[in-house]
Amino acid sequence: MDHFPVAVIMERRRLQSRWADEAWExxxxxxxxGDNPAATRQLVAETDRDQYLVGGFALELFRDxxxxxxxxxxxxxxxxxxxxxxxxxxxxxxxATVSYGEAARLLDSGEQVDGVAMPREIADWVxxxxxxxxxxxxxxxxxxxxxxxxxxxxx
Length: 155
Description:
Largest sheet: 4 strands, antiparallel
Oligomer: single chain
Strand content: 35-45%
Number of domains: 1
Number of strands: 7
Number of helices: 4
Strand order of the largest sheet: 2-1-4-3
Distance between the termini: 62 Å
Structural class: alpha+beta
């Protein structure tokens, strides 16, 4: 499978602050097999927070990003990275990725990116890809600072 359909859970928290009324954040990603891909539905409606499930995303894996997937999976808490923008007062997720590199490039370009814990089903899928395509860089022989080696070269 070359892609993995997911939905993003976005949360809006109401704030007691004179600088901002609310704060948005991606708080989860869930597998979305069989869901209406374009659907957005409210999951939680409380006085201090709302959560929305936003569908229509697919994680894709590329061979040239295998190093970044490996780094993500080998971290203490593997993440799915969600890039979102606030449009018309609502946070809209636009990209979901499991690549450290892609997330870093998005952050470097000034985008809002949140990392959320990677569900086991996605980790298993990414792990299978990494096992197939990740090739560790060959280890380079390091020349140690050997004062006797200098004497041998001169002698």
